[in-house]
Amino acid sequence: MGQNSPSPHDGDDDFNTTTTTGSYPIRDRFRLKRNPKSSSTLITKSSSSSASSLTDRRRSHGYGARSVLYRKLFSVRGTNWFYLCMLIVVFAFAFVSLVLQSSIGSSMMFKPGGGGQGIGPSVRQGLEFGSSLKFVERRFVSEEGVRMKDRVVVRSPRLAIIVGNMKIDPSSLVLLTVVKNLRGLGYMLQIYATEDSKIKPTWEKTIGHVSILSPESYGHIDWSAFDGVVVNSLEAHDAILSLMQEPFCSVQLIWIIEEDTLANRLPFYEEMGWGHLIAYWKNAFRRADVIVFPDYSLSMLYSVLDTGNFIVIPGSPIDVWASERYQKAHSKSQLRVKNGFGNDDMLVLVVGSSFFYNELSWDYAVAMHNLGPLLTNYARKGDVGTSFKFLFVCGNSSSAYNDALQDIAGRLGLRRDSVGHYGLDGDVDEMLLIADIVLYGSSQDEQGFPSLITRAMTYGVPIIAPDYPIIKRYVVDGEQGIIFSKDKPDELMKSFKLLTSNGKLSNYAHRVASSGKLLAKNLQASECIDGYMKLLKNVLILPSDSILPGLVSQPKQGEWEWDLFSEETYHWSSNMTSLSLKEDTRNTSVVYDIEEDTTPSLDSRIGFQDESEIMLDDNLTEVDWDVLSEIDSLEETERVELEEIEGRTDKSYGVWEELYRDAKRADKLKFESNERDEGELERTGQPVCIYEVYNGAGAWPFLHHGSLYRGLSLSTKSRRLRSDDVDAVGRLSILNETYYRDILLEMGGMFSIANRLDNVHKRPWIGFQSWRAAARKVSLSSKAERVLEGTVQQKLRGDVIYFWARVDMDGELAQSNHALTFWSMCDILNAGNCRTAFQDAFRRMYALPSYVEALPPMPEDGGHWSSLHSWVMPTPSFLEFMMFSRMFADALDSLHMNASTTTECLLGSSVSEKQHCYCRLLELLVNVWAYHSARTMVYIDPNSGSLEEQHPVEQRKGFMWTKYFNSTLLKSMDEDLAEAADDGDHPYERWLWPRTGEVHWQGIFEREREERYRIKMDKKRKQKEKLFERLAIGYKQKTLAG
């Protein structure tokens, strides 16, 4: 049952017979319960025998002191007599509170069937009186340093919102409010939902199109296209699984969890020994950069799964939502009559913290201690007039609470019907609705605003609360409620008098209640919205080309979007009052589906019952173990006997023809399992092969099949099953290192193909394509593929490069106010440092002096440029391009290695950009090489297949730097580097160039030729020596016995 929706009573026969249809208790809101099966007890007529005997003993000890004080009181007159009586009562309650703790403690711990039965390990263990629970959340680094950097921004930040619970409930109200404000900040949003819902039109009207996710569609979404993903609810678990696969592991993820379904199952997992389930969920929680909870209690209940990424953003309309729903379905006057209260009775409800303890209820005792003067003044025996009744709501409904309470009431001379107890496991909404005044008497300074106070304010009941910081933060004293100092009990009496007049609520009380109701409607809404804005600002590290949010506009704050839910909320409240939401979630939550999949031998849903009873029933006794051991022994003996009998029995293996046929069939199946797929067979004789580079199983759905394509996996473990994909790691060992695999990415795959190319590629044309091309809908269509194959077969052109994925395919760069050139687009994609990095690497590569220009000019003719490594060129040209790229990548890496901070990437700002540091610059390198080496560049429209030449060679004359891109020069430079590598003359420690491909120069060729000649001559020498030995000694055959 999640916090996002109140759940009705699920249980007792007494409750069903005494309440009307559609009553919804609040108890499921409180996650820490003690005895959920006990029935409620309001006011009892007699105390237990143990409590009575305890009263007699205490009375004998205090009689003498009271008699002395009684004689001295006759000398005091007027108001002094009243204050002296109040002082005596305070001391009396201090003494009685100790007795109360002992009586409650003994009854809770040892009384059979009482409320002291534990519920297993919890966050409350180890707490002592005076201490409090506090959740310390993670601190995030401010983004001010990023904002101060110069950025060339051209697009809005992209966010994917995955709604796992698209229902008409408080959770959807919060998410819709937050997302609407995010859009106002300038975020570009894409909404996904795990299921269709009646609220979908509201989302589409307010935010935009909502895509419904099916189990098959998760693999067809390119999550890397988003700067961050926000997931709401545990029900979007499948989306988390897709984000746990490469290449999406670096996508920033925020997971909002508002349900307590999994939290309630975690203790059961521990008791059953299901450590694999805890490890499974902990691994899923670890994937998220941040796990967000709406209140502090949830963060503590999920503490078993905490990996240091938990934070709390308080604020939820669940209490207001549930209270308004309950108020529409119930009548205050009828509930008063049902519970035995008259219209003239003044009901004061004393509520405590939802964090109460198994052993001792300190809130209970402290509240009684502080309310001593108040009770004495308004509930004494013999008073005539308005009947004041004080109801204490805390703990559970065990009789120990009520017995101890009545014991104190009798000792103070109070009427027995003036004091009562009500457990939190009952219908607390009923008590809050019929109350005239609600007094918050908790001794715990909680981090979150008390939910019972919020519900009381929603019902229009005036509240009195101590001056805790969380209450003073939202409630203005004298306007929305009365706040008194917890260290000054006399202020409580003054606060109480302000709300009452002649035994009824004063006009001032009605004004306070009305203001409190308005406050509760949107309580903490502003803080919740602002909290999510700051979270995204501090957690999401945006790419260098993205606009920083907050610079567009400021978010609208203050209220939940109640207007968007008005009609739906009324319909839901009026037609679902008798529906048990908790029963629905039991059978539909993904938590139980995972339990069934991982533990099929046991029905995990028995955990809905009393878990302690289940564990008692399932515990095996000594006799049970003996029986199991005997059964295992008998089965083992029988198995051994059967094996011995089978071994002694003659078997008929069948005729030889059948055995031969079976053996041939097995060989055929074995051959088929190792045989290449149909695409490899069709690829035979094709003039071109396009290698699709991918890294991780998450990219599998975007890869093509057929004769034109072949996969190129950058990870051995992530290769597709039953395919002939090339293993790049096996061909180039440097890709086994995560660092270099990430910074090179697709270029590293090309290096692996170029390394001993003849072993894998024997066709005249070669092409490459990143998996992202298909993910972004810019891969070749069937028509464009036929055009490409026909063009390369005709060989109408010379040295040509065909490309189909161009820079700025989605048009975002065109929206920039800057003048777009090749180098400006490169700067945008590389945090503004593309030109600097390129010319430094180019100067180092060719050993150019500082005064020589090192940035090759690129035309501004409006033509297209290649991106995403999606192109086809002749195989010899590819080898020449790889020769140039290896030297350039080495020069670029040497600049990085010689920098003062080797881990800092200057070509990106986000996590993904820094992880793949060189990729965006190397992605554009083919354009510089093709332009200045006088290659013809042809753009193929990926949809229509039309061909269009870009940057004609005739127009490049006078602009090309052909001297630097001459093949003869590149070969000589390659040989120089190979000679240095062969001699061990490394320019720096981690030299990249020798590890990216073949190392070959003339000296190595001569040495290998000499080695082959030496081996050949050694073989001839050995043959001659053997021949001479035979001629000298002769050949003698050994005897048969020898």
Considering the chains and any ligands shown, give keywords for the structure.
single chain; 1042 residues; 8-stranded mixed β-sheet; 7-stranded parallel β-sheet; 41 helices; extended
Architecture blueprint of SSEs:
Blueprint: H1 13-18, H2 49-73, H3 78-110, H4 144-148, E1 158-163, H5 170-185, E2 188-193, H6 200-206, E3 210-212, E4 228-232, H7 237-243, E5 253-256, H8 261-272, H9 275-287, E6 290-293, H10 296-301, E7 310-312, H11 318-329, H12 332-338, E8 346-351, H13 362-370, H14 372-378, E9 388-393, H15 399-411, E10 419-422, H16 428-434, E11 437-440, H17 451-458, E12 463-466, H18 469-474, E13 482-484, H19 489-499, E14 500-501, E15 504-505, H20 507-521, H21 525-539, H22 562-575, H23 581-588, H24 590-598, H25 611-618, H26 622-648, H27 656-674, H28 678-683, E16 688-694, E17 709-713, E18 726-727, H29 728-731, H30 738-744, H31 746-754, E19 765-770, H32 771-775, H33 782-794, E20 800-803, H34 822-829, H35 834-846, E21 871-874, H36 875-897, H37 911-915, H38 919-923, H39 925-932, E22 936-940, E23 947-950, H40 967-983, H41 1002-1033
Parallel strand pairs: 1-2, 1-4, 2-3, 4-5, 5-6, 6-7, 8-9, 8-11, 9-10, 11-12, 12-13, 16-17, 16-19, 17-18, 20-22
Antiparallel strand pairs: 14-15, 19-21, 20-21, 22-23
Helix pairs in contact: 2-15, 3-13, 3-15, 5-21, 11-17, 17-20, 31-36, 35-36, 36-40
